Amino acid sequence: QVQLAESGGGSVESGGSLRLSCVVSAYSHWPRSVAWFRQAPGKEREGVAVKPNDAGARYSDSVVGRFTISVDTSKNIVYLQMNSLKPEDTAMYYCAADTRGGRWHPLSIHNYDSWGQGTQVTISS
């Protein structure tokens, strides 16, 4: 497992942008994949973006074209740039890491063994 710490959440109006950051620490090897998930009140946690170590990024249908995941390995930071935000993007956002090589869909929570504590994103209409 690794340690993950998110930041960058906040409240913005619909159409605005936010950039979330996730510092990755306490690792011996960079995770096989890093991802961002979100969970709205009363809903299941859903994957929105994943960056495998050896493949391109993938996104959920609800955010493709608006969100971008990127990794700065020199700083050990995973970013989630969120543009054209909508009220339905309101949720707690979590950073996750797969250090064991999960066999599930890349956006499945079952792939990930390390989680941050989350950062709240609120979008007003």
- Low-pLDDT ranges: none
Average predicted local confidence, pLDDT: 96
The sequence of SSEs as H and E is: EEEEEEEEEEE
Number of helices: 0
**In percent, how helical is the residue content?**
under 10%
Structural shape: globular
Helix/strand class: mainly beta
Number of strands: 11
Distance between the termini: 38 Å
Strand content: over 45%
Quaternary organisation of the protein chains: single chain
Query: How would you characterize the largest beta sheet?
Result: 7 strands, mixed
In angstroms, what is the radius of gyration? 13 Å
Tell me what the structure shows.
The protein is mostly beta strands and 125 residues long. The chain has no helices and 11 strands. It has strands at residues 3-7, 10-13, 18-25, 33-39, 46-52, 58-59, 67-72, 77-82, 91-98, 114-115, 119-124. Strands 2, 4, 5, 6, 9, 10 and 11 form a 7-stranded mixed sheet that branches. It has a 4-stranded antiparallel sheet with strand order 1-3-8-7, with no helix packed on it. Strand 5 (46-52) and strand 6 (58-59) form a beta hairpin. The radius of gyration is 13 Å and the shape is globular.
